């Protein structure tokens, strides 16, 4: 168990981000006109009022960071819990506003959460995202195996084939997340959990570029 905790601390230190400069709320905006607003949420992991967004800059001040928090996104249970307790999902649709001469894509995503997994148990995070009316980005899946106790962090990057929002078009940015705790061969009398609720969050690194009109 001590080994798992040490690994968690190392991961968290490697992926630590600058402090947010925007107030977390149902909407977030930046001085240059870029903004995001929670349009709709749906799913067992995000009851009304549990999803918020914030915008900040990275260390260099060149890129924007979109932070999404889901305060109820936690799957947990024991041997007597219903199967629905071990799986939580959330579909988030964000209304986006981008200046006409700009567009953006997601080039990196950092996930922060916590898990309590007994030996033989596992926890899984899944995510897909897409702009309204467009193809989805490749699905992201990360699995943690027990024994594990404490915070976890995971980062995913794309260096090519970025999916940019079409220039001059109003399209929502849609996110579908799922967390699942699997009992496996673990002791059914002991609780297991995983999630990105509480202090957990998902941070999207936005790659902005200019639109060139013909």
TrEMBL record:
Domain of life according to the entry: Bacteria
InterPro entries: DUF4360
UniProt keywords, alphabetically: Signal
Any Pfam family hit: DUF4360
Signal sequence region: 1-21
PANTHER family linked: PSEUDOURIDINE SYNTHASE RSUA_RLUA-LIKE DOMAIN-CONTAINING PROTEIN (PTHR38847:SF1), PTHR38847
Protein name: DUF4360 domain-containing protein
